[in-house]
Amino acid sequence: MKSIEKLVIATHNPGKLKEIQDLLAPLGIECVSAAELGLPEPEEIGNTFIDNADLKAREAADLSGLPALADDSGLAVDALHGLPGIFSARWAEDEDGVRDFGRAMERVWREVEAAGEDAGHDAHFACALSLAWPDDGQVQSFEGRVDGTLVWPPRGDKGFGYDPMFVPNGYDQTFGEFDPEAKHRISHRADAFRKLVATLG
Question: Which residues of the chain have pLDDT under 70?
């Protein structure tokens, strides 16, 4: 594995950027976001989390000339056959592209309720990380997952996205109630990062 001094984080999501920066902090790598560099957000046309993470990482590496790390992640609900999945962010968007995860959580819960009591409330967060290099086009990908259940109404104002309605297995708090450091130890993103860091080490 080549050494990395400066890394582009291929995201325009401030919550996701903060989590990734926190997880990378022990490595001493300087991070700059795609938004800071004025890079566009590519259209996520992949069929899987890894597909989308790969295309975001490749584009950021190509445009910046720096190694780039992209994350694609989302909530997969058993009662909804894995949805919203790769469409997690899009479920939060209105016709103008403005994201409101309060609205997205309401949609998830409404559709879970419509699926019936037997469908249950099981869900998991999935994360794919892709690390792309600008010179040779090499990409490495890593996947992480955390299982849990959905609750309503949402609880907590920490985290972001669907965190306030997701309780990880073995805990009583939603990710929206977790302290960031505690979430970093058990989240889907942390799981994927452990695999990434092991490779970088």
Answer: 1-2, 201
For the entire predicted model, the pTM comes to 0.86
Tell me: is residue 22 an annotated ligand-binding position.
no
- Strand-strand pairing, 6-9 and 30-33: parallel
Which residue of the set 51, 54, 71, 72 is catalytic? 72
The CB-side HSE value for 181 (13 A sphere, CA atoms) comes to 2
Q: What is d(CA 16, CA 12) in angstroms, rounded to the nearest whole number? A: 8
Residue 72 designated active-site: yes
Is residue 190 within 8 Å of residue 144, measured between CB atoms? Answer: yes
- 15 in a known ligand binding site: yes
Contact 112, 165 (CB under 8 A): no
Residue 168 is encoded by which pair of tokens? 């990880």
| Rounded Cα–Cα distance for residues 13 and 169 (Å) | 26
Per the annotation, does 163 bind a ligand? yes
